[in-house]
Amino acid sequence: MNRLFANLPTTVFEVMSSLARETGAINLGQGFPDDPGPEDVRRAAADAVLNGYNQYPSMMGIPELRSAIAAHYQHWQGVDLDANTEVMVTSGATEALAGAILGIVEPGDEVVLFEPMYDAYLPLVRLAGGVPKFVTLQPPHFRLTEEALSKAFSPKTKAVVFNNPLNPTATVFSDEDLALLSRFCRKFDAIAISDEVWEHLVFDGRRHRTVLGLEGMRERSVKIGSAGKIFSLTGWKVGFVCAAPPIMKVLAKSHQFLAFTTAPNLQSAVAYGLAKDDAYFDGMRTNFARSRDRFTAGLNTLGFQVIPSQGTYFLNIDIAPLGETDDIAFCHRLVMEHGVAAIPVSAFYAEGAVKNVVRFCFAKKDSTLDAGLERLAKAIRKAA
Ligand code: PMP
Ligand code: GLN
Question: Which residue of 49, 70, 173, 320 pairs with 356 in a disulfide if CB–CB is 3.0 to 4.6 A?
């Protein structure tokens, strides 16, 4: 068997969701809302299943969706994309990431990764034969620094895998951080593979900026998005890739033998959804920010130390003040004894393991959050 996969653990999201299912715990681990998602978008999908085309769509994605993606990013990010040559639809951001890493990285190439990092990145870089170079971002601000980037980038750097907003830390990178990153990419002639799946989930008036819009990055960036996140329909697995034609030509080749196409009916519904007016997207942000605030306030009242969340579906707590030194053991006890599933953030580290941070998903109904808080109250009483 291929040793890379044979030796990999099962992803922490599946592990925690399985434990939650088995024990009947409230699942605040894996990131998915418990709201059914926008009804009009789901109706558009149902209509396309019944009345639309259900055979293989074109490999690059249905034209209607590719145009909608280009128009969406023109509107929200001010970037000009040619729907025919610079946009491709994938089966989720996961396929987009795999296709980009396998399409760009050759054996021996160095790839800069920022930890904590989404758990798919490192195995994919290794699969491509890439040599990971880690930058460990430091809490509580998780900023990029010139010193850290200088240590990680070299003339052998082929690519950097960047995630903004960052899962799990819920950080939205500042313009200065982005300028620093783009300066290093230009200096070392590196491609930025930019995982922007949380682009619309930014709070408190923050704006997300795509790497494609940064000075000098248009020709050396791959922007990855996910309709699953944009519409809170995480099971749909409809992703998007945007890149300049010379890069896109190669990414199309990796895509053709990874997934080839994506359900056409879901593609039509996503095309419909991307054209929704600003009020929809602003309302979604306001609602999630309200859930974040409700859950943060509840945790603070119980005595948990919350690390503020600027975006995504997530917030983190620091468990060190509770005298806890092992996030995995803590999360295990939480799900088995107290009926709440969470994610130990050490799963997102390869090198600079931080063992005192635990991630919760707050993208839930008030009643789910409140029931979670009730159980967490018992957990903290026991710990104290
Ligand atoms: N990247 C990040 C940072 C994520 O949090 C996720 C998970 N939702 C993905 C990629 C995968 O997205 P998708 O479900 O569209 O494959
Ligand atoms: N992105 C989701 C999270 O961070 C999980 C996705 C998955 O289960 N692979 O919770």
Answer: 320
